[in-house]
## 1
Amino acid sequence: MTVSAIEFSRLGPPKLRLYAMRCEACDTLSPWWERNHCYKCGGGALHEEELAGGGELTNYTVVYYPPRDFLGQEPYVVGHIEMDEGVLMPAPIVGVAPEDVAVGTRVKATLRRMKLGHEGDIYYSQKFVVDAEAPAPAAGE
Amino acid sequence: MRVGVLGIGKTPHKIQHQKSLRDLVVEAGRKALDDAGVGPSDIQALYVGNVGSVGFNFENSTGLMSAHHLGLVPAGAVRVEAACGTGAWALHLGCVAILSGLYDTVMVLGAEKMNDLATVEGTSIIAQAADSKEEYFSGLTFPSGVALTARKYMQVYGLTEEDLAHTSVKNHHYGARNPYAHLRFECTVEEVMRSAKVADPLKLYEVCPMTDAGSALVLCREEILRAQPDKPQVYVTATQMATGTWYAATDTLEDAHALLARPAQRAYEMAGIGPEDIDVAEIYNSFAIQEPLGVEALGFAAQGEGWKGAADGSTWIDGKVAVNLSGGLLCKGHPLGATGSTQAVDIIEQLRGTAPEGMQRPDAEIGISACRGGPGAVGAVHIYQRLEGEA
Amino acid sequence: MAELISYGAYLPQYRAPLGELHRFYGRPGRPRSKALATPGLDEDPLTMAYEAAVEALGDGAAPSALIAVCQSPPFGLRKLSGTLRAALGLGTEVTPYDLGGHAGGLLDAFALAEALTADGAGPALVVTADHLVSYEERVADTLSAGGAAAFLVGREGGFAALGPAARAYQEVYDVWRLGTEPEPRYRLEVLFDAYAAAAKGALAGLEALTERPAGEYAAVCASQPHPQTLRALGRLGVRPEQLEATSFVGEIGNLGAASVGLALALGLDRAEPGQELLCFGYGGGEGIAQALSVTGTPPAIGAAERIAGDEIALGTYYRWTRGRQPVPH
């Protein structure tokens, strides 16, 4: 998590958009923090690739005892989303009651505040909302 | 003992807002791997020296983070911390790992990212490396704690502030020639005397800056390096660690001397040499007074006379023993966890003959590094030797 | 002539119980709105502007400029339009403009968009967003709420043309804030008077330009900081039917600069080709009235369905209002 105005200035612009890291050796897409090495093949050259924002919720939990930065938002859903491009994204799911979330739900990325830094700096990043236009997952999928 | 140094690497030592702690770790680690000619899968254990990531960077587990981002998984990794002696402790553990016979090749890495927070916050975090709950509760800061030692030294040995200023002049002379140093300007005694007071009697040019840096070494069993005669045959031949009092109130001049003198004596015995055999030394000097203390503790001068070498040339590049040809911590800064490992890297460059022009001691064969901190709580001495053509 | 090409709107899903706030603070009289549209803790004018802008941009319209209108930007000294541009993934060739300090600023933004697109430049994306904040019992007067609306303004492919505009201004203290204060100061009676006077002057000015009195527009889409201000329009010849579909302040409160934007989105949703709409923006003593000619079928977004929301408890509202304070350094 970013913590200081300098660190955010270093990371800020990329975190306003949803992106992942593409390995130039084996083409695997890794999460955005894998800037230095591909976990699949060990390659050291990766570049940013923007994601379209759509994905499927593959796992989730509901947090009742939040860390300080998320106080007031509990209970909130945090899950792993398999993005359509083929990479796992951890993120909160907002705008939906915890009981209305299910594995297989189609979600899409949007912009939200993540936390308020102790220097009065605001960190924005992606949270996900249920994609109302997507068809419900078929039984057995 | 002989521990082979297969590779070394370091980042620039300065404020680097565009690099995160991860970037520093990866840059230093990859440089060392490339220099060693090995890949990540050859490293069997990783020792990461880092003091303040919880404070400076709001994260812990620096060793595990480094293993992941360097691609060293699944080798074991751990974070090492011993205040300012952290980097030296990481080196010590790397040597112990090799000497134990459990490992063939390990990596030692020091890294610190101090400049994401404002200076006043950074100072508070550095204070936690000393007894922040007791003496620092009274308003002491790290510079003021060491300043107390400086005043004692001046009272006992009659050192004047002008005398001490020569240390900064020498360090800055070489720092200006070190492309990896944080501060790269020369200065005169007058300029040192005129620089702003930080904690009397220590002035701005007598205290080190807050620096972002990483440095790394790949260590191996002696046989592995011997089997590659085209590689520089530099070995760690002694490693000795010590503690001292943690409180400034109980830190006498004798304690300050013994903190390094005791492990130094054991290190010389371990390597089978004496102070007269040393060509180059890296002596911890985040505050100028610590260089004379270290010069004395390592046996290069009598107590009370360690400051003279900077004034009369005997600790300069062509003196009896060249001290801090890198510019010392006064110019390189003190990236807490990396300082000890950078000292090692800089000595090894001297023994390899690859230091930049103007700071390379000719024909350096035996070097020593002395690291201390806390400010009187940790001492570490390592000896390095170039041992060509030995079986 | 500049045209509206597409639009979007965003309302947070939460509704604060204004009635409970009245009872809690022992306020006299009845609550002037049923609820207050309340942004969640992880929302602010930037995130709401993002949502509205995404809807307006649809499948990848490429604006040449981005104009942000906001009285409550997350940062006082940084460009909301700049960060919004980055969040939308638009390139630096899209010029960012910030307009602030005026609840009727949407009309200023339309004028700027018209000027920017005059010589063949691509469309301008106009986004209004606000999260008004008042603490304690003051919210009973200020009806502080939040939302956003966005409009793509260009020279071709639109469904409604921006017509003539007229302004009226007087120097008043109705709602203002000193630069260092977090909360607005206000005198409601001055607001009501000034709104009426500004509306009178602007509507008269527009009538002089268009020869169409206010009562002859298909709908009136107006800034609405308080239900009383809509009643003032009624006394100036605006008929209840013209405000029926575009009034919401009595349901969800005062959305600041986004208020006239949401009103316009509601009006456009129900507009038909051939109709004329009147858009009225008010703020700080100034009223701006602009005529819009609907030439095609608007790409409706169903804004009316978003007025209803999920009620939150009084305690939740209080936590969310107070919880926005930064931790002391």
Note: The domain at 3-159+314-319 of chain C is CATH 3.40.47.10 (Peroxisomal Thiolase; Chain A, domain 1).
## 2
Amino acid sequence: MSEFLSMGGYGKYLWPSFVLGIGIVALNFWMALGSLSKAKQEARRRLEMQS
Amino acid sequence: MRTGSLGVAQLVIARDLRLAFRKPSQLLQPLMFFMIVATLFPLTLTPEMSRLRDAAPGVLWIGALLSSLLALESLFREDAQDGTLEQFALSGQSLTWMLFAKTCTHWLLTGLPLALSTPIVAVPLGVPTEALWSVVASVALGSFALSLIGAISAGLTLGARRGGVLLSLLTLPLAVPILVFGADATHQAIIGGAIGPPLRMLGAIAVLGVTLAPLAAAAAVRIGLE
Amino acid sequence: MSWAWFHRFASPPWVYGFATRWTPWFGGAALLVMLWALYGGLILAPPDYQQKDAFRIVYIHAPSATLSMAVYATMALAAAVGLIWRMKVAHAVAAACAPIGAWFTVATLGTGMLWGKPMWGAYWVWDPRLTSELVLLFLYFGYMGLRAGIEDPQKADKASAMLAIVGVVNLPIIHYSVTWWNSLHQKPTRLLGEADMVWAMVWPLLLMFLAFFLFFAAVVLIRLRAELLRRERSASWIREVLK
């Protein structure tokens, strides 16, 4: 297991790279969903003000 | 009476020159800015001549770029505000051609004087006298290409808030090739190497700019005028 | 040939429904493919002869780089479609692409730096490929800045569309920079046919490309929905959709 983590000594470059990459993937999902729910809220408010 | 294309260009150029020379102090501002910026580098980096000579291409080109960006603001802004640009668009003449004429005049008033003043800045930076003409030529060519590309971003930012900062932000990525080859040409001139290849690339970029940039600028201006 | 499908893509409510239906599929597929690819790349693939285990950074770096350019191309294409055919939906797609593409560019630059340090000894070099990728990031920022800076939504659409199209010239520069100039960055690696890498290393990479594309599809559809809701203001179809 520790061999896996050290990755032949390159672990300190490899793992941050993967964290960065996967982190950006997750962050994009999260931010997109946040933007969508905000847009839905605003749309609901607009419709309420109309009726 | 139908004015031919050359006649239209002459009218546009003559008008811009007349307006510019009503406020000659405004013509000097970009030049002053260039000299001040170029002076800041030796003050902040090092007064050591050999190191300055190495840094000279960068200093010259960044100074030229920054003062060109400042000058670009005046390319379309006043004419957009007082409705002249709209008249151009509605006139039935080619807006592309008129904007090209405007851009050329703008370069004659800002880029060319800048290029001609580079020796004043280059010599204190350690650039050898033999290299000065090449430096002037490369900055002249590069600033012409820059004016063309800047016309596009000037057109795009006509309707934007804080257009000045945005104009610089938009022009910089597109200006990178000009910077790279221009600085290389200046560097080659200083060390006495081959300035042909980078100057040819600059020329190619300028030619590309001449053919495409006025079209894009005209389209951008039309969007902004709607 | 029926152009009906093309017309459907011009209709905001139809596109919204399409996006809602397909997002879970793209997202789920992206997750599964990525897990499978990571298993293959991190555990199954043997270490590289020269780079040892450091080569595994390619599994994040290469797909991010490809996507950073592919997303820009999509953005420019959507912008062009929006300009030529005056399709609101196309402009919305372009707007939705921009933040995603910017993040991919950040991922490319970041993983590139983490790979460059052990391989070249430096986090950054001013070589053509890295510099033009950085310029791509600036182009994304410029695009988003221009959109934000123009009040009128239609003018913002058109002006930013023009910027996106003009900036396309950067893409071939990034891609071919390693062959045109003497670059420190690695030349393109052949993956199929007469491959430069063994198959055990290649298949996880191909899967990661697929996973990143699926992920892009899922996220862009989510952002597209948000764009459409914001743009359509109080159109009647929104009432239906929000129930």
Note: The mean pLDDT of chain C is 86.
## 3
Amino acid sequence: MSRRGKLFQLVAVLIVAVLTMGSSSTAVRYNDLGHKMMCVCGCNEILIECNHLGCPDSDQMLSELRASIAGGANDDAILTAFQDKYGPTVLAAPMLSKFNIIAWIVPPAVLILGIAGTSVLVRRWRLRAAAKPASSPVAGFSAMRERIRRETEL
Amino acid sequence: MPTFGSFALLVALALSGYALLAGGIALRQLTTGSRGRVSPERLAETARRAGIGSFLATTGAAFALVWAAFNNDFSVAYILHHSNRALPGPYKFAALWSGQEGSLLLWAWLLSAYGFVLRIRHKVDVKLTAYASTILAGIQVFFLLLLNFAAMPFSLVGGAVPQDGFGLNPLLQYPEMVIHPPMLYLGYVGFAVPFAFALGALMMRYPGEKWIHITRRWTMVTWLFLTCGVFLGAHWAYSVLGWGGYWGWDPVENASLMPWLTGTAFLHSVMMQEKRGMMKSWNVWLIFSTFLLAIFGTLLTRSGLVSSVHAFAQSSIGTWFWTFLVIVLAVCLFTFILQRDHLKSENKIESLVSRESSFLFNNLVLLAACFTVLWGTLFPVLSEYVQGNKVTVGAPFYNRVAVPIGLFLLFLTGIGPLLAWRNSSFKSIRKNFVLPCIAGLITAVVVIACGVHPWEIFTTSDQGSFYSFIAFTLSAVVVTAIGSEFLRGAHVIARHTGQNLFASVVQLTRRNTRRYGGYIVHFGVVIIFVGIAGSAFNQSKEEELGFKQSVNIGPYRLECQSYSQDSNANYDTEYALLDVYRGGKKITQLAPEKRFYTASQQPSTIVANHSTLAWDLYVIYAGKNPDTGQPIIKVFLNPLVAWIWIGVGVVVLGTGVALVPNMSAALAASRNRATALATAEVVVARSGD
């Protein structure tokens, strides 16, 4: 594989790593999972951050979360169970499944395609500019002087 | 007064309609050379004056609504629903933008005020201003149609008039709500002016880049208002919503961020057009998109398209906004297709490693960020359409997708100024990048030594440490790059003038305020990033605290001195008094509250915050344990938050510097004035003889 190919592969691996890493269990699973779900009382806030006085849902949901962690379920199973019980809007971000995967893929894809497209365009412009014969130095002198003045003004 | 307000709105609509029609006919005649009974110049002048009249009429309507609020005129349905007798004066004033109809009136009034300034200053360029004025009149007609027929602020209540109003939403009863929405609206509405100039310049095939010079200050001031509006909103959320954060990626927050991102891209790319005659089509579409996104943001807030904690005014006016958006887009597209040959670039980018390229990539990343925010905001709607069920796209999505894009932007902020125009040689790159890279490496080592472990991203689900590490390192690179730019220029001046370094930096900045003001803005952005990076190390604790009981967090100990309740005409309150100790010494007392507003029957959190440069001790009263009657206190220790607000201050300062004319231009202007004065004195003296 060429050097450029290897570099591209490395960048791709890093991007995938950043986007998909982090599903292992830790001592702070409760906090993590609490931040991955929404309170369903209609406040539109992250479950663990819902601070509504007398909220009818968050306390119960957090108790269920504690019980699920204590019961030994893994993160995905807990999130799926909550999704089944409260509906898909309980998850603070779409899971990597079926149609929802598009949500995660499209923005980085747009950025990468944009950068690649722009690089190709600039390269093409540069080649076209290099192929053009240089204009008469006398005719272009004043225009160039004006341009230098504009571009290097302190 | 309600009758006066309704009448004023009708008059404003008639005048704006006239300004649009007469202005349109006059410009058509000027373009084709045809003439009617009235000359096109005179017709255009009547349109201009009608536009000024429309401002006066809209001001009258806004005044009538504020007057009704201050006089507790509950016969007006809007006042009944957004005010009450016990509401403090400033919030009665804020009632103007606390609901749907009022905020639309504020939109219309600000638009007419911008139009007023533009029409008064029409001599800058009479024809181009006439185009812009007519386009602004068209936008004004839309908002006045809404106010007269769909969202009427002066509707009267049916039957008996209640003795008191239902009060203002408690979340809005906070000092920042008196200035945050007007700032945001000044930003949203303000982009209508550069939009009108860009569209007008394209319609009339305006030669050169003068329209950019004319609108430069408009755009920068508007951008500044929007920046202040966005961050005041963040500060409001931090102080009022009481969840310990300042940005929740809520659809309404996103709606304000999108035009800010495209507006920022526009501010950068117009420099390419000014300096090198490039990116003309791109710039036109950037300002079109910015205006369309500002309208779209208003649509998001008002239509209920997506659910939000900030959407305080929702109704069925979405159809009006969709129709307006489609019309504006169609006009922009049609004009662009018709006149696109006028937008040919004079130059092309010659190297990937050049200042032009960095501007291009900066634009690309800003647009990618804008697209990400738009995509995340609208994905629930798309999901419902495709899958039949809505999903939530909240903070975890943006933290993974938008934050890396933001960091890439920070990286470009650092390297852009180090590259030369047209092409950068390897030698100059090596020379310019050595110092920032060394600063970045040293910072990386120091940050790791301080306990930030970026490799945790590979072992835990926490991405915060990794992002913070990158943010701190890049910040050091950017600050060093900016500092070296200042020092390099200042050394040249110091060598030639013999001034000290500080005086040289000041003189350097005054010589090219736009460039160095821009660097100060970048410095402010870096400070904001540093403040945001601190959020990876937030800590929180929730405890029930009885008398003399305490909770420890970080270096602080909070001891409960008392807890009680109180009430006044506007609300009932429960609060706790907490003494804060550090190192055994009492440093302050905090009093977090929970209020229950009488008129609206809604609760609200009043956060107690002890802010230092290192961290915020952020305390909320979460409620009372019904069994023990003791308060439940939630304490957050949020590092570096104060730097976000300091960074915004630096951004404001930098924008202010960039708005000041260059020293040479100011000197030339004052020389011209002196010459004119001397000539006038000679003329007067001669006429006296």
Note: Chain A touches chain B through 59 residues (CB under 8 Å).
## 4
Amino acid sequence: MLNIQSLSKEYGKKQILNSVTLTAKSGEIIGLVGENGAGKSTMLQILATLSQPTSGSISLDDQSYKKSKKHIRKKVGFVGQDIALWEEFTVKENMVFFEKLSWIKKSEVELRQLCRDMKLEKWDETVKTLSGGMKRKLNLAISLIHEPMLLLLDEPTVGIDLKSRKEIGSYLHDLAKNHGKMIIYTSHDMDEINNLCERVYCIGNDPFYRKLLQEYGKEPIIL
Amino acid sequence: MKSILATRFIHWKKQRTSLIFWLLFPIIATIGIITATEVLQEDTKVPVGVVLEEETEESKELVEEIKTTPFVRIREIPEDDALHQLRKHELDSVFVIHEGFEEKILENNRSQLITSYQSDLSFAYSPVKEIILSYVQQETGKSKAAFTVKELEQQYETNTGWTFEEIVIKSNQIEQDENLLNTAFSFSGSPVKGSKNTPLFSIWGLWAICSMLSTLLLFDWVIKERQSNTRVRFAFTRWTLKSYLLQNLILYSVLFFIIDLLTVITLYAIFGEWINIFNLIVFRILLSLAAFLLAHLFKTTYLFYSVSFGLTLFVTISSGAVLPPGVTDWFWLDLLNPVLPLLSGEYLSLWSLIVILFTIVWLVRKERYHA
């Protein structure tokens, strides 16, 4: 279980997050929406231990972020906005490269299966020749090698075709419902958020997003 | 380390051509430059013809002696050919060593030993003639000494039992032991070696400069991997980015050192040049660390490559290749020169202290990830 209590983040005098409190359970997919610069990415970076909050506390599986950062990192998977791949490597080489550095050892068959589950079949092709959708899938697959319990996704489907978007969405749904992963997801695509997430948090005080969520029949939770 | 090696192999596989090229560049460039300058030196020598009418110890020794004359190339050919080539100015001058040369030397007879020819364009004639004169003087002197000893033996009716040859050998030994003048040249404190054809450059000095360039250029991986989007993934792997970089530094240093050892064997086999292995290890460690740390200062490889070429050029100039040592008063240049400790074996320099200091700073500095 993820427990966030009174989390705040300031950059200088600018308040980005103001006393955010939320909890997430295993198998849940939580959506974060808000205008650009509202603090969605900052929130994910704090949850990924890549940034420190100004105040507040976070715990994952009763382990405090402050006290056991190293252990927390083993349980967290992070997919940033940028594609973090070796462009000149093949899909296989990318998977093997990060598996070698991972805490969990996986065979080549297991790695290939992970890609297949995501409908990524081009195993021996160089990343630079792949479509944007394929790259996004590989980006996600690598973040799952160490089998994290909390998966943080910062606009993982931005700029890709509808088919790949649906495939990724369906895979994430399977991960949460059948493998018990907690997923926190940011996106500007309200259809995607509406289809995938049980709870949607609205970061920032922009009435546009509140109204939009209400139009989709979701009760917005303001952070 | 095994995992890091496996990941490094994936990178090396992708850049094998450039990796092999730059790893072998120092040894190939060194052999190439030294061989080219030797050929050039040989081609610019003045051709002098020697005609040997007898094949005796003394005549062969004289030819060897003439060959030591700087900038003279000896051609052993028949007299007719030699004179024909002299007329066509293909030979600078011709020296004919007549039959009975050895016999006359041993008899202390200096007349009509050698006939020499020169043309109006000859300019190697005089130095070669001087060499021959001094040699003949020296050899006949030894013979004369031997005869004198023998005469004294008879005069005082003593029997030392010394043969003529033994006296000559003894006088050769005395000549070597009490040599009046001995000169030797060295480059930037490099080991002195007696050689008939001294290379224009210090072989290890040249190799060190080429090695500096290749090491700097091959450490571009630090920039590529630190600036890559993949760096954020290291927060979620067994190794931190710093530990990953450090282990790769060790791998690269080991790889370089293996090539360095192959270089030692190759240069010894080709040129007979040896280097202290301990000096080489220290040079390799300091150079790898310096390239590694320098690469941390850059965000783009283009700028790093430019600086690498600039630094190599600067070290080449300050090492005495262009400005001879001692021309400037910038003694601190020598203290910062990474090549000099390899050649002199003096490791405690400003250069090594700076590299060690910055390495410690890098090791204690905290690492940051940016998503």
Note: The beta strands of chain B are 46-52, 72-76, 93-97, 114-118.
